[in-house]
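subagent[fold] <- orchestrator: predict structure for attached chain, return tokens only, no commentary.
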Amino acid sequence: MDFYERTFASRRSNVVARNGLVATSQPLAAQAGLEVLQAGGNAIDAAIATVASLCVLEPCSTGVGGDAFALIWSAKDQKLYGINASGPAPEKLTADYVRAQGHETFPALGALAVTVPGSVRGWELALSKFGSMGLDTLLKRPIQYARDGYAVSERIAAAWSRSEEKMSAHPDSKRVWLPGGKAPQAAGLFKNPEFAQTLQTIAEEGYEAFYAGDIGRQIAECVQEAGGFLTQEDLVNYQAEWVEPISIEYRDGYAFHEIPPNGQGLTALLALNIAKGYDVREMGYGTADYTHMMMEAIKLAFADAHAYIADPKKVDVPLKGLLSDSYTAERRALIQMDSALTPHPGQPQVHGDTVYLTVADGEGNMVSWIQSLYMGFGSGLTAGTTGVQLQNRGANFSLEEGHPNEAAGGKRPFHTIIPGFITKDGQAWSSFGVMGGFMQPQGHLQVGSNLVDFGMSPQAALDAPRFNWQHDKLFAMEDSFEAGILAKMARRGHTLMPQAEARKLHYGGGQVIVRDPETGVLIGGSEPRNDGAAVGF
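subagent[fold] -> orchestrator:
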């Protein structure tokens, strides 16, 4: 690992620590997690304190009205565990009803897009197995942030302002999130006493208070009054679940691990599987051949992901076939180094706003946690006096009859949010993630390759330029790619978004922690494209 690599724009240093490290998109949230570690809590405790703080500090991106996924390395068990805390559509929802309303694609706003919020059940699952502190302790700092107020960071203020029209359409949303009718400005103060009370209720009465109590009642009433089907029974019946991570052996003893469908972690593994068939070090970082190959790999991966990823409880997802060496070789053979392909799914044998955080403690535990409302402020609905904004995950359902991801009651939609993890020779090596809708598997591919193939430090791996596939042959590329690369990609047949437009896109928000296998020292990096920080002790 090269600590002196300063090729890329931010020139940030890595954060190194021995006893614990937290990396996320808001410094105040990282501080909350660090306080828990310093008080004797473990990485799982700190992760919940951090994500609960993010629910306060980044309300456009996440909240308890959204979903979560996690990968947790247990030092005691020497094992990686997965959590799927994504909620299903209301039992009474049908695709026929949505189509009958005149929709050709599933609506992204309003009550129909609201699915059961799973994040609080995810907190419960993680803490019940691995936690060492109570909710009253872990939620103390986020409750304070919500009750007493905080200064809104620059990028969050910008994202908040983009949702003014959406939030103005719903009275409770406008009242809570647009004080004085406007989004808070950067460095402006914002308080959410209603959400502080919601967190206080969860801390005092437990997780059931969110689903079975008055909070859940208000959530169900909000959705029904806006024309949706969510009931409190849907909320009460929901449980998050432990899942077995899916993995590929990459190279040199490194293995990548993701959450299985209904999440899109499979997309990252499909692309990495294709990439491992090339001598990327011989190609060289940032060269035309390397960049072209990576762009082609992610296009092929997305083609299969959109065809096959769905709720495995409702349909068969051919994981073994998709990740098999033979199928990967077939897909890899489609790549021509002198021309860009138009992606189509193969036949294997049987906008997003999100927060990501990673935490490691001195005992060897590591947590990769991601939580989201999906689009900015989710559905645009806020539930009564709870201060809880509701996600719009239903937007990722298909309305195509017979599609594996076709909307149905009790079914979980295709999910964009994915935590990542890398092991080296079977041991925990890196907890990482890159938030940002369909940018996420692209970020896992690019940042993961930077770390493993080119030995970049966590910060350099995050600083490096990224591409963002849009559709067909269309890519956006950051200005920081070396001179001439964009022109070379265009000559190979890629359609490139004009740079004036490409600069407006978000290329993901990543956080990385690497554990030195010899010393146990923790090395962290935080996304230069976000407001975040890595902190340790």
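orchestrator: received. Logging for downstream: The chain has 22 helices and 19 strands. The longest helix spans residues 288-308.
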